Please model this.
Amino acid sequence: MPDAPASSFALPALKPYPVVLPPERKGLDKHAHALLARLSLPFARRHLLALQHAVRVAGKLEPQFSGLDDAALDRAARDVSMRLRRQGVEKMPLRAEALALIREVTRRTLGNRAYDVQLLGAATLMAGHIAEMATGEGKTMTAAMAAALTALAGRPVHVVTVNDYLAERDAELGEPLFSRLGFTLGIVISGQQLAERQAAYACDIVYCTNKELTFDALRDRLVLGDGDGDTRLRFEALRGEDTRQKKLRMRGLVAAIVDEADSVLVDEARTPLIISESAPLPFDLASAEEALRLAELLQQGRDYEIVALEHRVGLTPAGRETIADFAQGRGEQWRGVIRREELIRQAISAIRLFHRDHHYMVREGKVVIIDEHTGRAMPDRSWSDGLHQLVEVKEGLEPSMARRTLARMTYQRFFRRYQYLGGLTGTASQVAGELKLVYGLDVVPIPTHRKLQRVTVPASVHGSAERHWQAVIERVRQLHERGAPVLIGTRSVASSIEAGRRLGEAGLPHQVLNARQDATEAEIVAGAGNRGAITIATNMAGRGTDIKLGPGVEELGGLHVVMIERHEARRIDRQLAGRSGRQGQRGRFEPILSVEDPILVDGGGKWLAGMARGFLAVLGSRGAAFCINLAQLRLERTHAGMRRSLLRSDAQQAKTLAFSGRGE
Model:
């Protein structure tokens, strides 16, 4: 990367903005959801035409900027910035001029001339939309250009990524560009102290992870308490007190660019953000062990029902009677009806719904939750209402302390606070209606720079798990003998371990990437495109890291992705498929599935699994694949409903409750 030339570029500092959160963006009426799902993409194509016109005009203006020396380019940048601050980015001629400018500055600092599709993506972000860009199209550089343009318009901007590695890597890539334009750059990652975070958030452009950003906002709410007015904070500063403002991490929410927007704004939105403190356990160890023993004895169908779609347990009248009989003569923990029934429900959930190496793993004597969407470990999270402690007791571990909630917010409510919001992802079309409904964001599909050459074959479905594994191993062996690299996509850590075991028994060398290898995932993923490589990955572990093809691999058909389990959302399947065929290279996507796929039971119950077997016998793989797709759709609808319910609950709590507490 070439060094950025010395710059005399200087603008007035970005305007300070309030510490308090700005008013929340208003969501649309819930009854508009189905209509928006149908109409959002046609509306987005209209946006695309206008943005493509701006990019074409920028192309015509390119010689005007490329012929300038550095000093003249500085003056041009200063002029464009001042006009952006006065007029905004909505004016088409000015927007096109800004795009042409940023392309030239990017070329001189990063050594790469931005493709039209990257410029189109940056324009989409500037317009406040979601840019749907395929894997390998240069989203990192697109986000950097959009961040620079946002700062040129006088808006401090947060670039939000999904993990610390990506935040640091992407910030490093964009640093020469930002420095050339005179902007300060901050990075917020885990492990930083208060002073480091304050300094980072004070910068013009901040790269941060979604978790650090949102929890910092919650911590600031605890500091502010009820007296959160900006005027009151200024009076405190005038009096020279040990002000709350000095304890705040952030200085407000103006503009945000969210990378992997579907993961952050949709997948993560099923879980509320909670700041908590240690609290006494609602039960003692003996009661937990008794509850788990009773849960083992209770029978599904007679004593309780499992609502698989909602991951919930419901007790039957017979089950309640059994619990009441069991409670006779026992300690205080068993006297209250509501308390003991909730304890048993959680114990049943710990045994029947939460499984080791799928929902969690045991690391260094602790239960660590696994993110079901990415396969990554989440050591800073715990389940609530005693469930986490019951899982620990089930695993023979010492139960940790319970947690008491101090502050709570959802991702939906947090990101709607930004005045300007945009995002990038490779897969957002399936949730375009929800993104419009909740955040007011349109999804704009960005064309690929080169024609897509990936081959997607119809799913082959097998009648048992054993025949399924035999088919997977045989297909991987065929590809390996040719020297073609193979990426095997699984849904859980347990499946990745099983795949690794079977490949090992078959004598096939491989690498396993799951929550157990999260520290080295980028290195493993980067080598997945080498000749003869076999890589097993959970969901989208390593997401954000490109898989580059080794020498001679494209002649072998490129990277071959073999999906052995459906995921809970079609988007995640598309993300896995998008690992191959990047930047117009050859690639292949092959689903090899089974009628014993867990998604059939999760999404439809035993009746849908039975239907899949029947369809397989009569119609073959196509019929069974239809049932698997139906189960996936049912899960998508259920999860969307859960997110809407969480948002309604959060909005209701905001009306009736205030944040409390003064701690970290």
